[in-house]
Amino acid sequence: DAKTTQPTSMDCAEGRAANLPCNHSTISGNEYVYWYRQIHSQGPQYIIHGLKNNETNEMASLIITEDRKSSTLILPHATLRDTAVYYCIVSVNFGNEKLTFGTGTRLTIIP
Amino acid sequence: ETGVTQTPRHLVMGMTNKKSLKCEQHLGHNAMYWYKQSAKKPLELMFVYSLEERVENNSVPSRFSPECPNSSHLFLHLHTLQPEDSALYLCASSQYRGSNTEAFFGQGTRLTVV
After folding, report:
1. pLDDT tens, B88-99?
2. Which residue(s) pair with B37 in the sheet?
């Protein structure tokens, strides 16, 4: 699986959009970009994933650059409950046993 | 609620005890996973089961013994653990190697070995 690079931590004001970047310059053509988050002491929560096109669901939007070497997860109106560690993962699918979680970005929403 | 349920949520056990962690999924997935998350460390994949057969064992000590009796249930049997095995143990499920798949995690079992 391609390696990802994320900032260690970020702050965002409550009510503003939180934009979390991820670099994956060695991504292969058939690898998806997945985002998960983990709120303190809970299991990781699936957020969104995409291959090439931008994706949106009820939780977030995923913007993937045209060359697919980086992506941005957007939480449109951050709330205090969005404080968590956010993981960007690149893999052909989750069923790949070589899929690994890195250290992620610790996002803190500031009141 | 993710559709993946783990029990118990918290467990304290002595080093000579035997206990089991249970995971159950009702998502129709055919693969289940055990992960370990120690304090301030990334998630570590321990075991992968697909169609009830183990397909991956990431050099996990034999004091951890997984069991997958059917595609909906996964167990992790524990015996003679060490204090350094204290961690959050997470179960996940997905479609195995299907394209465009995602996994869903349980809430985890917080294990403390004393």
Report:
1. 999 999 887 666
2. B88
Cβ separation of A49 and B106 shorter than 8 Å?
no
End-to-end C-alpha distance for chain B, whole angstroms:
31
pLDDT tops 80 at residue A39: yes
Taking CA atoms, B25 is separated from A30, B4, B91, in Å, by 28, 4, 9
Name chain A contacts of B10, Cβ cutoff 8 Å: none
- Alpha helix (H) residue ranges in B10-96: none
| Spatial separation of the C-alpha atoms in residues B46 and B59, rounded to whole Å | 8
Give A49's contacts in chain B (Cβ within 8 Å).
Answer: 100, 102
What is the structure's pLDDT at A98?
A: 64
Mean per-residue pLDDT of chain A = 92
| Contact present, B72 and B6 (Cβ < 8 Å) | no
CB A101, CB A6: distance < 8 Å: no
B-chain residue closest to A44, CA distance: B105
Residues of chain A contacting B, Cβ within 8 Å: 32, 34, 41-46, 49, 51, 92-97, 99-104
